Amino acid sequence: MRISELNGTNSVGYYDRLPEKLVLEGYRRWTAGFETGSIIPWEMTWGLYSEVLGASEAKRAIAELSQFIRVLRHCASCQLRAFPFDSHHVCREECLTLGLISGLQNQDGLLLDTCLEAIACKRRCDDVADAARNFADTLADFGQTLLPIPIHAIDIALNITRRATFH
């Protein structure tokens, strides 16, 4: 799925928005660090966040990102997948992650619930929601609010089964 399919905007413009880039690339890079055991993706995350937010704010945002990804990995109902860094495509789990944060920041309960139910095991949805909320609130505190994502975009992501290259 192309990023533009999430909310109907131009994919380059959407991807270039800093809030979306922080969430998507943060997810991709932090997940890759866990998967590979390498600190290089985490250093790349630090570089992105400190460039966008400044060092002090990056510390707080990365702490919340790290906790969110850690909880998500533990509570996910499926393996977390991701496209390579800087890709202009998003996979199911990336759509759901963007949806979680957007739903929280834009007070879209239907979007939030749909994404939670699709990505987290039922008994751990509250844990994922709490960690996502802390991350979303931290980004919002720094003026990084995602655009609203229409629920139909998440429905499409949940119903598409395409073969793609993931980490």
UniProtKB/TrEMBL annotation:
Source organism (scientific name): Brucella pituitosa
Domain of life: Bacteria
Protein name stated in the entry: Uncharacterized protein
